[in-house]
Automatic annotation (TrEMBL):
Keywords: Transferase
Pfam families membership: Tri3
The keyword DNA-binding belongs to this UniProt entry's keyword annotation: no
Presence of the UniProt keyword Transmembrane helix in the record: no
Organism: Athelia psychrophila
Family designation: Belongs to the trichothecene O-acetyltransferase family.
Superkingdom assignment: Eukaryota
Biological processes, Gene Ontology terms: mycotoxin biosynthetic process
Lineage of source species: Eukaryota, Fungi, Dikarya, Basidiomycota, Agaricomycotina
GO molecular function term, any single one: acetyltransferase activity
Protein name, as recorded: Condensation domain-containing protein
InterPro entries in the cross-refs: CAT-like_dom_sf, Tri3/Sat12/Sat16/Mac1
Membrane-spanning ranges: none
Length: 292
């Protein structure tokens, strides 16, 4: 990680004098930039606002356990430490910064895993498959009253009950928008899958091999200005400030309840019954016939 690239580069130490950390010598911080600021402010005022979820179902070897998933998330943190960063605020919420604390030992890594990886089980054959279970937990996590945390990435492992070890598993990632946009959320899901495959293929020896914690800070994600050819100056933010102020005002507005219609329109029929195929191009009619 290069230093002094811009005012948004990572620097050693806690972000603010009031920030409490375990070890200042193993702590790094950087200023938020552009959209990071907007989404961090939204989350600060209304926890959960702007957060996103991505999920998938997999059919891994029957040997896959939650311990494998935890080991995979551990390796992912070492390769991409920003997933374990947090947004810290100054007194009075005047400024926010990303903060990363390198763990001292595996005890601290385990504590982080306990707070960011969760296992939920389902029982195949009782009317609830892995997709239904994923939908259930997406709904639970999206609920307005669901408790929120400062962790920017959380992993939920949906596993079959013990007597159904050969059934499908589900993975659900809950990501804060201050760090992850939609593309990044899918990318990190791909990284999780890759690490799980490596853990299963490498056995316990690789899964829990010692890692040089404290060195990973060099791979902390840099701000956009540090990753593009166009260099930004602090003055460049001035032209965006009116939009930021407007966004702050919008975020402070009370929520609006959408009233349901007294006589809602009937649900639309499936497309293959509602389209008049005689008005479709020839190639579209051919596709329609193949889908019947």
């Amino acid at each position: 990680m290069e230093n002094s690239l811009s005012p948004w580069s990572w620097s050693p130490g806690p972000p603010f004098p009031s920030t409490r950390v375990v070890d200042p010598a193993r702590t790094w911080n950087r200023r938020l930039w552009g959209g990071e600021i907007i989404f961090a402010q939204g989350t600060r005022q209304q926890p959960g606002r702007g957060d996103g979820m991505v999920s998938c179902s997999i059919e891994p070897p029957s040997s896959l356990s939650h311990a494998h998933v935890r080991a995979a998330f551990r390796h992912l943190r070492f390769k991409h430490p920003s997933i374990a960063s947090q947004v810290a605020w100054s007194e009075g919420d005047k400024e926010a910064r990303f903060m990363y604390e390198a763990p001292r030992d595996e005890f601290h890594v385990e504590a982080w895993l306990d707070a960011t990886t969760f296992e939920r089980t389902y029982t195949p054959g009782l009317g609830l498959d892995v997709e239904a279970s994923l939908e259930h937990w997406r709904s639970e996590l999206a609920h307005a009253h669901c408790p929120r945390t400062n962790h920017l990435l959380t992993l939920y492992h949906i596993s079959p009950s013990g007597s159904n070890s050969g059934a499908a598993h589900g993975l659900l990632l809950y990501a804060h928008h201050s760090l992850f946009d939609g593309i990044a959320a899918w990318q990190v899901l791909g990284c999780v899958l890759s690490e799980i495959a490596c853990v299963i293929g490498g056995g316990d020896e690789r899964a829990w091999a010692p890692l040089a914690w404290g060195e990973e800070y060099a791979r902390l994600a840099r701000a956009v200005p540090d990753r593009t050819e166009t260099k930004w100056e602090m003055e460049d933010m001035n032209q965006e400030w009116p939009a930021v102020k407007h966004m702050q005002a919008v975020l402070q507005r009370p929520s609006v309840n959408i009233l349901r219609l007294a006589n809602p329109a009937p649900a639309r029929a499936p497309w293959r019954h509602s389209l008049d195929r005689t008005h479709l191009p020839v190639h579209s009619r051919a596709r329609a016939r193949t889908r019947r």
